[in-house]
TrEMBL record:
One of its GO terms (molecular function) is NAD(P)HX epimerase activity. Residues 4-199 form the YjeF N-terminal domain. This is Bifunctional NAD(P)H-hydrate repair enzyme. Keywords: ATP-binding, Isomerase, Kinase, Lyase, Metal-binding, Multifunctional enzyme, NAD, NADP, Nucleotide-binding, Potassium, Transferase. In the N-terminal section; belongs to the NnrE/AIBP family. In the C-terminal section; belongs to the NnrD/CARKD family. InterPro entries: Carbohydrate_kinase_pred_CS, CARKD, Nnr, Ribokinase-like, YjeF_N_dom, YjeF_N_dom_sf. It catalyses: (6R)-NADPHX = (6S)-NADPHX; (6S)-NADPHX + ADP = AMP + phosphate + NADPH + H(+); (6S)-NADHX + ADP = AMP + phosphate + NADH + H(+); (6R)-NADHX = (6S)-NADHX. Gene3D superfamilies: 3.40.1190.20, YjeF N-terminal domain (3.40.50.10260). Bifunctional enzyme that catalyzes the epimerization of the S- and R-forms of NAD(P)HX and the dehydration of the S-form of NAD(P)HX at the expense of ADP, which is converted to AMP. This allows the repair of both epimers of NAD(P)HX, a damaged form of NAD(P)H that is a result of enzymatic or heat-dependent hydration. Residues 204-449 form the YjeF C-terminal domain.
Length: 449
């Protein structure tokens, strides 16, 4: 089942307190979960040397609990103000005879380094000393684990984790594009009770959520839609092949030529059309004025975001927009007359995706390292893709995949969710050098699903 995303821990902690779990017990559960994960990972080392880097707040206190349950670890406390909970946990540990390191350790001597310095409540720039330490740790070969959130994530220098153990709930900041390089693999820790998520609106999609076109033995090509593509020869062919490999019954490219004999070439829409994708490399956007598109499910991409004619499609629930950040900047200019830079968008992807979807009815796919799919109040994120997709043509294939699902009668939100998830999973499944990946390998990889 898809995982629920929250902005912070407050909702979860409130529910725990209502059920009788106080802060002390929550911290104990958090520390046990962290310790158990470290124990599991330490098995790959012979007599693993484990170092905890501790702050003076709740994150550091979680680390102190984990140390107590591990029994064998080292701890270096940073010179920050200690809160009451940290002091209590520190004293409990000292009572067991545990000795804290007096001076900064040599990080290269450790097999596992655990970041318990700052949690999600950090609202200041990391000091120069901690930045220096994190730079040293980044150069070490140690397995790096962050408790709840890598300290300083979103800043120029932060802790770069191989794993992040997310305490209680999955937090939005861990799924921002700028965080992807630093959070590593995200693992979830239960603090004592299952969270009520009946009214949740934000979700992380996982492999098990994927739904594909299902073909029965007595079906024919017409059962799975005839999709049309308005794009340039190259981009249109990639989109067309993506649509075919993803299950479309018939694919027509409105262009003079293509580089595949599998795609039909048309001068215009000639027959009953199930869905249409428009925009990739397309110079003539007059099709956006065509009345025949009035009741046809659409994917609008690339050059479409340069045309004000796009605005007439934004309040249709059967339309999917697929901008990358620069195109999204153009879209925001058209919609709100605001000049929002790509950098600003990338720093606040969730904010701007929600801002757009709160006003318009269409589905938005904001492409990036962790694509965001939104419609109205619903928001979905896919974080299983990787840098292999950072190649020209990947977005063209995605548009073809979405239109294939639209043609097969998926609604627009389901088409976008499943195509984006499948797109990412193909890249994840690619085991060779990521630099060798390209759009044709992406299309070929769809068979692995």
């Amino acid at each position: 089942m898809m995982k629920v995303i929250f902005k912070d821990n407050s909702c979860y902690e409130k529910q725990l307190i209502e059920k009788g779990l106080d802060e002390f017990l929550m911290m104990e559960n958090a520390g046990i979960e962290l310790a158990n994960f470290i124990k599991k990972k330490s098995k790959k080392f012979k007599n693993a040397k484990i170092l905890f880097l501790l702050g003076g707040g709740g994150n550091g206190a979680d680390g102190l609990v984990a140390i107590r349950h591990l029994k064998k670890a080292y701890a270096y406390v940073m010179p920050y103000k200690k809160n009451t909970m940290f002091i209590k946990q520190e004293q409990i540990l000292k009572n067991t005879g545990f000795k804290f390191l007096k001076k900064e350790p040599k990080f290269k001597d450790f097999d596992i380094i655990v970041d318990c310095v700052f949690g999600s409540g950090l609202n200041k720039i990391l000091d120069e000393n901690l930045q220096r330490i994190f730079k040293k740790i980044a150069k070490s070969k140690a397995l790096k684990i962050a408790c709840d959130i890598p300290s300083g994530v979103g800043q120029k220098v932060c802790f770069k984790a191989d794993y992040t153990i997310c305490m209680g709930v999955l937090k939005e900041i861990l799924l921002e594009d700028f965080a992807k390089e630093f959070v590593g693999k995200i693992k979830y820790a239960n603090l004592g009770l299952k969270l009520k998520t009946k009214n949740s609106q934000s979700f992380l999609l996982e492999k098990k959520d994927l739904k594909l076109i299902t073909k029965k033995t007595n079906s024919n090509k017409g059962d799975f839609g005839h999709v049309y593509i308005f794009a340039s020869k190259s981009a249109g062919t990639l989109a067309g092949l993506g649509a075919l490999k993803f299950g479309a019954g018939l694919v027509s490219l409105v262009a003079k030529e293509s580089f595949s004999p599998l795609i039909m070439l048309k001068d215009d829409i000639e027959a009953k059309v199930s869905a249409v994708v428009i925009g990739m490399g397309l110079e003539d956007l007059s099709i956006l004025k065509d009345e025949r598109l009035k009741n046809t499910p659409l994917v609008l991409d690339a050059n479409c975001f340069q045309s004000a004619n796009l605005l007439s499609y934004l309040d249709r629930e059967d339309v999917v927009l697929t901008p990358h950040p620069k195109e999204f900047s153009m879209l925001l200019k058209l919609c709100f007359n605001e000049d929002i830079s790509v950098e600003e968008i990338q720093n606040k992807r969730f904010f701007y995706a929600r801002k757009f979807s709160s006003k318009f009815q269409c589905v938005l796919v904001l492409k990036g390292a962790n694509p965001i799919i939104t419609q109205n109040e619903k928001l979905f994120v896919v974080n299983c893709g990787n840098e292999a997709l950072a190649k020209g043509g990947s977005g063209d294939v995605l548009s073809g995949m979405i239109v294939a699902l639209l043609g097969a009668r998926f609604n627009a939100l389901e088409a976008a969710k499943n195509a984006v998830l499948a797109h990412a999973l193909v890249a994840k499944n690619y085991e060779k050098n990521k630099n060798s990946f390209d759009a044709l390998k992406l299309i070929k990889g769809l068979k692995c699903l």
